[in-house]
């Protein structure tokens, strides 16, 4: 029997063992690729289920209720992230609109606004910022839904500097009520 020497291989058995090794490595690589593909699909399916905008697509039992964030209101979270100087990629790992909403988005955003004001009192949030929340419920076999505004900041916000002036003004009014004001004094206050 004539043996052919191939770079680093000295026998027929070693050629078969090398081919077997290559086959096992290729099979392992294909399994890893398949697993990655399946996990990507699972993540995409989970995310697409969270971003359903049409309340008619939800399968609800009788009397059940479900709420989710309207697509146009999801920009509110992006604005909050910008105001807090948080990158979208960092924030999306820690809080997305869907994740926060599952734990009570409105309450969490209100907390974020309060925290932002606490640590940076000069930061201003516009008054009347709200989310439009869609609440879907199935009654008598029919799917009903309604829109509700959930305010993140109050409609009439009191700025930190204004609180001092309002307090002084209310104290002054209380003090004035104890004395007999003259007509000219009343006109000067107004």
From TrEMBL:
Q: Which residues form a coiled coil?
A: none
Species of origin: Schistosoma haematobium
Any idea where this protein resides?
A: Cytoplasm, Cytoskeleton
GO biological-process terms attached to the record: actin cytoskeleton organization; cell projection assembly; establishment or maintenance of cell polarity regulating cell shape; substrate adhesion-dependent cell spreading
Keywords attached to this entry:
Actin-binding, Cytoplasm, Cytoskeleton, Repeat
List the GO terms this entry assigns under cellular component, sorted alphabetically: actin cytoskeleton; cytoplasm; focal adhesion
Primary site of residence: cytoplasm
Give the protein name, as stated in the record: Uncharacterized protein
- Example GO molecular function: actin binding
**InterPro entries from the UniProt entry:** Parvin
